[in-house]
Amino acid sequence: MDEVTLKIEDLGYDDFFGSERARRGSGGVRVARVIAEHRGGYRVKDADGEYVAKVTGKRIHAASSREDYPAVGDWVEISGAGDGRAVIGRILPRRTVIRRKEIGKSRIQIIATNVDTAFVVEAVDRDYNLNRLERYVAIARDGGVRSSS
Description:
Number of strands: 9
Radius of gyration: 17 Å
CATH superfamily of the largest domain: Nucleic acid-binding proteins
Distance between the termini: 40 Å
CATH architecture of the largest domain: Beta Barrel
Number of domains: 2
Mean pLDDT: 86
Shape: globular
Strand order of the largest sheet: 1-2-3-5-4
């Protein structure tokens, strides 16, 4: 059986992110996409594989809010990608951001970034809520995401 070769473009990397990297002068650094977030760590994926990753101490120290940390969907520059581990340096600029206020707090929670299209689906049984549907569509629209409901 032939092995499928994965390209970074298959993960959503395009000219928008390429031009941002060129503008920043970081052409020689590897990039990966954040595919999961866990307490204190991330899972990132590039064309060569998946890695467990942590952010640099410099990024932690420079962060002024939760939005300064990587989120699912972000493109990040990584180093030390070997042995299944990587270190996250910079986050590339986000094209879109789905965010909301944390429940019971005034802080912002990033749900996902760099989402092209969001499908808002809601069952029409006893739990149907028009206000909830409108809120989800508004969150997507405010984040720059096209939505289909």
